[in-house]
# Entry
Amino acid sequence: MPTQPTKNLETFPNPMGERDYTIRIRVPEFTCLCPKTGQPDFAILNLEYVPDKTCVELKSLKLYVWSFRDEGAFHEAVTNRILDDLVAATQPRFMRLTAEFNVRGGIYTTVVAEHRKPGWQPPAAVTLP
# Structure
C-alpha cells in the first residue's frame, strides 16, 4: 500500500497571519472502534479554526484521521484527543471540533470540544441589513 495511516500532522505557514479568518474542514468518514464491543463507530468530524502562524495540511489530516480506524475509543476521549493533537500541531487562535457519531444502540452522540488561545478575542460579528 503506497500510503499508510500516521499520527504525524503536518502544517504550512498561514498565508494571511495578520488576519482572523475561519477555516472549516468536514471529514465525513471518521471511524474508530467501540472500546466495549470492538464494533466500528462512524462519525462526521467538523473542524473550525482561526489559524495563527500555521495551518494543518489536508493530506496529513486525512492520514491522521485514518490512523484511528483500528483503535478503541470512547467518543468523548477520541474527540478531545484529536482536538489536543491538532492544537499541539497548529497552535491556533481558536479551534472547535464537533464529532457527530452515528447511532449506536438507538442513541446519537455529538461531542463538541474547543480551544482558545489565551488572550485571543474573536472579532465582533458583523450583521448586514
